[in-house]
Amino acid sequence: MASSPTPSLAGKVALITGASKGIGAATALELSSLGAKVVINYSSDAGPADALVQKIGADRAIAIKANAGDVKDIERLVDETLKWGGGKIDILIPNAGYAPTDQDLERTTVEQFDRVFDINVKGPYFLVQKAAPHMPPHSHIVLLSTSLCNLSSITPNYLLYVSAKGAVEQMVRILAKDLGRRGICVNCVAPGPTATELFFKGKSEELVKTIAGWNPFGRLGTPEDIARAMAWLVGGGSGWVNGQVLRVNGGMTV
Questions:
Q1: Residue 238 within a domain
Q2: What's the pLDDT at 233?
Q3: Which of 17, 32, 33, 148 could form a disulfide with 96 if both were Cys (CB 3.0 to 4.6 A apart)?
């Protein structure tokens, strides 16, 4: 009888920030199903993170609390990951984000600007800096943007959020050149509207239906849709894909 195939990510250690809910949680489940050991970072509520660890298995997942926008916390997160994961990080996904939808030019405060850029830009920037020295050749980094960066009908209230994600996309271009010399692929996933708790917050049913109608499939994306794209980018079949932004939105923007 033929033996079962080895999972494609067996032996890999993945660190995912903002991984207790939504896209991050779906990605943790997807990568673990492919054999990876997963670090589930969360910022405040331990309950969902601990539940996810139990679902995956305490031998293959760990929850670590850290502020993904604070450099000292990021350094500790990397250190704890290395101790748990055997001194290496094979997959890095800075997924944690903050997405205000009411920040046009007039209403943006310095405090809001700093918060958005701390979590969406500074955090991923320094997480990559701290983790990269411990990533062996054939490792993968996947940053997160948004398909709003490519939406011609974008409205002024998204100014601050999309400015931050635009910075992330430029980071990917340059990091791919830099870290590619060490055999590390750096790419980006830019989801479209996705059915997460964060997305539904403050939106009427009518607005949700309208947004779903922008898509040729007539629906929102699911966290699992995004997670499967992440899994492909960190798997063995994507080794010649580097410096790219993959807009995972069902064709909402093309």
A1: yes
A2: 97
A3: 17
